[in-house]
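Exercise (ungraded).
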Amino acid sequence: MEKVIDVQSLRKDFKSHSSRSGLKGAFRDLFTRNYKVISAVKDISFTVNEGEMVGYIGENGAGKSTSIKMLTGILTPTSGTVRVNGMDPHKEREKFVRSIGVVFGQRSQLWWDIAVQESFRLLKKVYNVPDDVYNEHMNHVIESLDIGPLLDKPVRKLSLGQRMRCELAAALLHNPKLLFLDEPTIGLDVLVKLKIRNFLKEINEKYKTTILLTTHDLTDIEALCDRVVMLDEGQIIYDGELAKLRSNWGEGKQIEFQFGEQVSGEQLQPLLKELEAEWTKGDRDNVWIANVINEEHVISEVIGRVVAANRITDIKIHEISTEEIIRNIYEEGMLNG
Amino acid sequence: MGKYLEMIRVRFLMMLAYRTNYYSGILIYSINIGAYYFLWNAIYGGKGEIEGLSVIQMTTYVAVAWMARAFYFNNIDREIAQEIKEGKVAVEFIRPYHYLLMKTMQGLGEGIFRLSFFSIPGMIIVSLIFPIEFSAAFSTWMFFMVAIILSFIVNTQINLLTGVMTFFFFNNDGLIRAKRVVIDLFSGLLLPISFYPGWAQNVMDFLPFQAISYIPSMIFTEGFTGSAVWEAILFQLVWAVILILPIQALWVIAKKRLIVQGG
């Protein structure tokens, strides 16, 4: 398998000055300043193979954007090596950027005042895409993303969802081997999200495009990525399959009972005797949640006993969501398994 | 090269998208030319000529200086500063082109737009209202063309220099404003350089500003003749080459220390 991204002990330090307090401090700041070195990314290493779709996740300030900016050649690393598509992103910038596509969800790369198709036309020239290749590829992209009717409108008149689909089309105009998506679905509605996800899957299958996706919306990751790389405070704390993350961390299940009458904790407690389960009180009246381990006989035993002893109006079984798993991991700080 | 030409076209389209700016520009420039015309008429009074320029030459100088300004003037320093402040410059770095060259092309697109829809029609209107002398000599027109292209280059280079400094100061509105005043004053737009005291003229010989407005206007009004024209164009050319050095140096340093603001 060909390595598309190869990162070895990559590090980025920022020098930032801290202001002294008060008027006197402000005067002193005019002459000398206090500098503090902050490491945004601390010696991370990972590789991505061709055709992979990798979810790159982390809290705000974990170092995601900084590392993506180093991978795309926008920022220079303080130390460490980066090889993307077999090139050094910073040293061979002009050649390198022809081989990647980037979507920044928070900033537009289309020209604000002109029609979308004019932006496309300019990008076609910028990337030197021949007419026949452009027509074949882009007609397909335009059709799948359903942006045909938007092409003659200026970007400033598009809605967020419309603009985002156009941004994606613009990033794929030169059919790059590698696509960086930095929060591409931020603020989009479910339908647009689905459309974008399906499109990304299709592109990945058709062209074997490698995709690196950062997002705070874990449903995107669940829908698209087999592998996740998780960052915390500039370090990688998990790199592996999403399914494994779930099986290691999402062990338990929650059974939520809505009782028909007032019940108390003491009443319920004996029902879970000798079982690996415990009660927590729900948000609403008469709602209790049994946290149980994920084993068939325990689950059916708990339900059986509770239903036999009480009147139940509703019952729900929740699996622990990826979001909760990830929250747990961050709260515990480190992944031990 | 195709991409740079395409950028000129796109900028042309953008100018068309904001037509109000265009109309208000015409108004502002006509007021300026009118005001300077009456001012200079009052200064000349009955005098035949001052510092080698006649009243008619002076009127022509003012009109040409403003019309040439429409061509060489652009706001790319402000645009670069804004793109850096908003972090948009990140997007420019993932494009396979030279950012500063692309900005220059945008300035050129703007300049060509103003020259064709603004300066030329404006000049015709102004020549109907005020007594202006057009040279009959073909060579004067050719030299003038070369001179305004060079004045565009020098002015744009100074703008790029001011713009790129945003990488180091993060907020350089003051510098941009100061630069604008300096250029209007020292380029010969408001007052021909020959009207300055001798020592100031000597100082300005070592600065690039007169390449922007004074030289093309003097060529057009035939205030420069013979070898003076060649020397003036050489002066512009030398500055156009010299200014590449600090821009490129600052750009290389800026790229290394680039911090994308706003996430």
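Further reading is listed at the end of the chapter. For now, observe: The first strand of chain B starts at residue 49 and ends at 50. The beta strands of chain B are 49-50, 53-54.
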